[in-house]
Write a structure and sequence with these properties.
460 residues; alpha/beta; 5-stranded parallel sheet
């Protein structure tokens, strides 16, 4: 059989592309060597959110007195094994739902590792243990793996089980007494949030002079101060130079060496696309700096071959992968639906949450944009004040172009941020102006009213 589309990889980009293509009448084969749902569903996005929600409930109970709820603090306990068991149940349910959906749509699933064999008679061929398959088009969605730097003792720690990647940390059956997290990005911060609540003494080791990567510095600085108050330690401008059981050796920017106690170590310095071992060389797909190069429609340099998700290294987020998958399939069907990378939101699911889209103060300045900005406390929202007893450091920040008032960026830190950012992403992507936002009706009382408050306070 000749398939209209062969998809390699069953993560967010791969399974959604298979669903969308089958829905358009394409015959589709999907090859996934591990579990349907990819890293996001099995080892990332969903498992971590299950843990973080348990921690949020636990923290709410512990601090219930502030809300007039008296509890016996000695009786409150976070059962980490029960939390992990619930996480596994959630993942199993969602993986099953994906399998059911693709099956109903008629997608043929090959649960094996597939390699691109080449091109023959105008068709792309992939090989798997069960045989060779041919297709008119090929979508590569092989995802990414953790970056593991060369650090003395790292390999031994992984082997002995006291060094973890995102995969192992989410399935730990115990809470480390002391946890060192190498890398202060999104994954590192989210795991710091959970294990801090669960009882670990957490230290984050970060090479930069700030946490949270490209997050607006005002926001990332405020988030760090909140977690310092919660007991998380930060070693900025430091790198992990050695790991041994019970400790991490850190080298600071000035050359000083510091030993950090750590009964467990999470390596979380980033991820890299999976491009080796999948046969790209057999069809001459162009790669650059470890990623497959694509355009806004997901096209590679080879006609008929597309790539979506982490493998293109453009915006390594699950919701970006969804949009890229839809852009690819739409293009195959003759529909132009380019991905708008400038309006893709980002969320850090700490407590409080951080959500942002568009320009930061730093990026706007670096581009030479003439901009205005305003930062106001989230407590200006009546609902936020009613639901958050001690969250005075949470803020809402708007960045807009002077003169035109065009919205350039929005950055939130506080409850419900992750649920509000999609609408703000639309505002930024649609080129709305501050005057447009001032005319919008926000339901009262909601935390989203903070956007209207900020829009009336900013001077553009």
């Amino acid at each position: 059989m000749v398939y209209d589309l062969i998809v390699i990889g069953g993560g967010p980009a791969g399974y959604l592309a298979a669903e969308r293509a089958a829905g358009k009448g394409f015959s589709v084969l999907l090859a996934e060597k591990k579990s349907m749902g990819g890293v996001c569903l099995n080892e990332g996005c969903i498992p971590s959110k299950a843990l973080l929600y348990s921690a949020k409930v636990f923290d709410g109970v512990r601090h219930g007195k502030a809300y007039g709820i008296n509890v016996d603090e000695g009786a409150i306990k976070l059962d980490h094994r029960a939390v992990v068991a619930r996480k596994d149940k959630v993942v199993k349910k969602l993986v099953g739902a994906i399998k059911s959906t693709v099956k109903k749509l008629g997608v043929e699933v090959v649960s094996e590792e597939a390699v691109i064999k080449g091109r023959k008679d105008g068709l792309f061929e992939i090989s798997a243990p069960s045989g060779t398959y041919s297709g008119k088009r090929l979508l590569i969605a092989t995802g990414s793996v953790p970056v593991l730097p060369r650090i003395n003792g790292l390999d031994e720690g992984l082997k002995e089980g006291y060094v973890y990647t995102n995969r192992e940390i989410l399935s730990l059956e115990h809470v480390p007494e002391t946890l060192a997290i190498v890398g202060g990005g999104i994954i590192g911060l989210e795991m710091a949030s959970y294990f801090n609540s669960a009882g670990s003494r957490v230290t984050i080791i970060e090479m930069l002079d700030h946490i949270a990567g490209n997050t607006d510095r005002e926001i990332s600085g405020a988030l760090m101060e909140i977690y310092k108050k919660k007991g998380v330690n930060f070693r900025l401008e430091s790198r992990a130079a050695g790991i041994k059981k019970g400790s991490v050796i850190c080298m600071q920017g000035d050359g000083a060496e510091i030993v950090t106690e750590a009964s467990g170590v999470l390596m979380s310095i980033g991820r890299r696309p999976v491009i080796s071992g999948i046969g790209l060389e057999n069809v001459s797909v162009y790669t650059d700096r470890g990623r497959i190069v694509t355009d806004e429609f997901g096209r590679t340099n080879i006609s008929g071959i597309y790539a979506a998700g982490d493998v293109n290294g453009t915006s390594m987020l699950a919701h970006t992968a969804y949009m890229e998958a839809e852009a690819c399939v739409d293009h195959m069907a003759g529909i132009r639906n380019p991905v708008r990378y400038d309006s893709i939101p980002s969320v850090i699911y700490t407590n409080p949450e951080v959500a942002s889209v568009g320009e930061t103060s730093e990026s706007a300045a670096a581009k030479g944009l003439d901009y205005a900005q305003i930062s106001i406390p989230m407590s200006y929202s009546g609902r936020f004040a009613a639901e958050n007893e001690a969250a005075g450091d949470c803020i809402c920040k708007l960045i807009a172009e002077k003169g035109t008032g065009r919205l350039l960026g929005i950055h939130l830190m506080g409850s419900y941020s992750s649920e509000m950012i999609y609408g703000l992403s639309f505002m930024a992507g649609a080129g709305l102006r501050i005057s447009d936002i001032r005319k919008m009706v926000f339901p009262h009382p909601t935390v989203s009213e903070i956007i209207r408050e900020a829009a009336f306070m900013i001077r553009v």
